[in-house]
Design a protein that fits this description.
Length: 231
């Protein structure tokens, strides 16, 4: 249920316990509106979460859903999160993340500031999406728990726009003390390269959600990660 302004009521306010002490997942499966609108999306998302357990996060990114629909999806994935230890991370919507019991929220330049979100939701793990070194420094200074940096390689989401490359990712990793995840055109074979650049892991869209079996795709990414000595 949404409130009169479209915000989702938060049971118990901002006093929920936080999972910030948990080990951050190394693989973030990031959605968009087209992916979330597919028939069978919840089944595909649950397959990813069960396949990777605590090493995987489903990052629910959507701009077009009503508050009611978003909350219903968050609730369903939060149940799976509790079953298998995977993370649910909600983009932008701190209220939905809190209300559904997600473990984290991912903020962008269009979201509320990291430090404001920390005051509102001290119990949530908070990530920040960054596209420049200055943005990464500001996010870390404001208290972000991790940064998602990109886009690293050319991707379908940014056709014709060349990736910023592994050198950019390495610069971000050297600039901030928080974990960094690369995003943008990441394929399984890129995971060792990302780790060599200093990244904690990867945020992936098409490589997981366009696969015939999303659970197997998640395992393929994690297997490539492990080939570089991942935890």
């Amino acid at each position: 249920m949404t409130g009169p302004t479209g915000f989702i009521p938060i049971p118990g306010g901002a006093e929920q316990a936080a999972p910030t002490a948990r080990l951050l997942p190394v693989l973030h499966a990031v959605t968009n509106d087209e992916i979330v609108g597919r028939a069978g999306f919840l089944d595909d998302a649950r397959a990813v979460m069960h396949a990777g357990g605590e090493r995987v996060a489903v990052q629910l990114r959507t701009a077009q859903l009503t508050g009611t629909t978003l909350y219903a999806i968050c609730q369903a994935l939060a149940e799976t999160q509790d079953e298998c230890g995977a993370w649910l991370i909600v983009n932008d919507r701190v209220d939905a993340a809190l209300a559904a019991g997600a473990r984290g929220v991912q903020l962008t330049s269009r979201s509320m500031r990291v430090d404001d979100a920390r005051r509102v939701a001290p119990g949530l793990a908070i990530g920040a999406s960054v596209h420049a070194l200055a943005e990464a420094r500001e996010a870390a200074r404001a208290g972000a728990d991790w940064c998602v940096a990109g886009h690293v390689f050319e991707s379908r989401g940014r056709p014709g726009a060349p990736g910023r490359g592994l050198a950019f990712l390495a610069d971000v990793c050297r600039t901030v003390s928080v974990p960094v995840f690369g995003i943008g055109g990441i394929r399984p074979e890129h995971l060792p390269l990302l780790r060599e650049a200093g990244a904690r892991g990867a945020a992936v869209i098409r490589g997981i959600w366009d696969a015939p079996n999303t659970g197997r795709a998640a395992i393929e990414y994690l297997s490539s990660y492990d080939a570089h000595g991942g935890p």
